Amino acid sequence: MKKYIILVCILICIAFIMCGCQRKYYGKGRSFTMNTSALPGYQNDNITAMSAENYDRFMHASYIMVTDKFGEVHKLKISANIKRHEWDFSNLQSNGIFKNYVMEDGSAKKIGVDVSEHQGVINWEVAAKEVDFAIIRLGYRGYTSGNITTDAYYSANMAGATAQGLPVGVYFYSQAVTYEEGVEEANFVLSQLGDYTLSYPIVLDREDSMAEDARTNDMSAEQHTQAALGFLETIKAAGHSAMMYTNRMYYALYLDLETIYQYPVWFAQYADEPDWPYEFSIWQYTENGEVPGISGPVDLNLEMIPPQ
Description:
Layout: H1 2-20, E1 23-25, E2 32-34, H2 44-62, E3 63-67, E4 73-77, E5 92-94, E6 99-101, E7 110-115, H3 124-127, E8 133-141, E9 148-150, H4 154-163, E10 168-174, H5 179-192, E11 202-206, H6 221-237, E12 242-247, H7 248-254, H8 257-260, E13 265-268, E14 282-289, E15 298-303
Parallel strand pairs: 7-8, 8-10, 10-11, 11-12, 12-13, 13-14
Antiparallel strand pairs: 1-2, 3-4, 5-6, 7-15, 8-9, 14-15
Helix pairs in contact: 5-6
């Protein structure tokens, strides 16, 4: 009898709550209405707006939303095995020429450029006064022929930058299609380093060339990852610091990130602020920067984590 009385009381309470709080629910993230008489200052339109905003925050906190080169949007679950960054990008500042990230103690991140033969002759005596580091292209593999070539201005840029005491690193533009070709590219880089002292890593630059006849077009994410590892593992085995560079789309769709994130990451996204959830060592934030001593547009970067 006592159990029966308790059950009746529970049913009466449920019925009372349902009558007093009218609610319609249309699905995850969609708007709903409820009785707002007990919520002074709130109307249903306020609640609808907050529902949409909260859903958007949930999605971006849990997933990477990325559009591929064909315009298709992909939703990728954020890995719990890769360290997330803790930066507050409201701390970004700009003087009209350079961005910077100012930390709580008032100190700022280092500013750098990356250059290649596309910038032509650089006046490093002038440029070195404007930036804190430079990463210089050593060479590249052709996206159709597969031939490996030294950047035409590699030697001049290395000599010019280091003569001014500017800390430097080098990068190689890869179009390797196998692990073995990645090893080949790395060995080419090692053979071209000479006696230069590197303060920054040897960087693997892999990107989708977006060309119909590119030799990498039919590769899977696993094949892209293996080609990258051939380079990175060879550089590391030679006693150098190895780093991966690419853009948001390539990181998200072309690579096994948990594998690649064993190495420092240089992240390219041309935006007011990056929306990548994971830590990265360098952020390339524009390809249209202006630096005295360098003719024409140049890539600009912020060093978020000092190189190891």
